[in-house]
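Supplementary Note 3. Input sequence used for the single-chain structure prediction.
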Amino acid sequence: MKGLSLVVSLGLALGGWQLCSLAVGTMLVPSPMEVGRELLHMVMQAETWLTLSITVARGAAGLLGALVCALVLGIATGSSPKAMRLLAPLVAALQSCPPVLWITLLMVWAGTGSLVPMAVVFATVFPLLFANVAQGCLALDRRLFDMAKLYHVPRWRILCRIILPGITPYLLAGLSYAAATSWKVTAVAEFLGSSTGIGAKLFWAYRMLKMPEIFAWASIVVLLGVVLELMVIAPLRLSAESFTGKIREKA
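The predicted structure, written as discrete structure tokens, is reproduced below.
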């Protein structure tokens, strides 16, 4: 049934696309067949795969940097309720900042290039990951730390046996959302602040009014988003739910 639903949904989307193309003209909305030919031509070129790898690498680098910093600072802050209360307003303010604000500031400070997309991804997803890690630490049973202190358990064992397993559901939940967000933010940052990557290709296609190329790159963005959802985000969500369920069973 899922396969049939997918085929029907895809057919409806392509049919609606074709109707729009017929209604407004191929100058504004190229037909699916025309975009398909352009997409096939692009896939056969090595430059397309290089562009794709650049965008994926930037998004992954920004996400990885945010994850490492969120783990270090989140665990340190989450271990102290007082520190968490002090930093909560700052984290909330950072979470409310739209990506376009970071793009604008970074373009002024650093110009254009690979740094802008990576830094924008970092600035966008770090507050979310930090908040999740810190909340996970605050939710840990304090009696476990008291027992560890009583028996003089080394800090590294406390980290590996108590803290990391305890914050895993929170971390996975935040990471699933951060992974989806980082992909979109990378493309937007490249559109405005980089000369390479998928976002930059979309910008130059827009400048030259190459509508089939715009739609082809947009199709690649959507397809990669779907692949990311199926191969990374969905497994992370399932892992978070499974981990949470096991913890509740033990409780």
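The chain has a mean pLDDT of 85. The CA atoms of residues 77 and 87 lie 8 Å apart.
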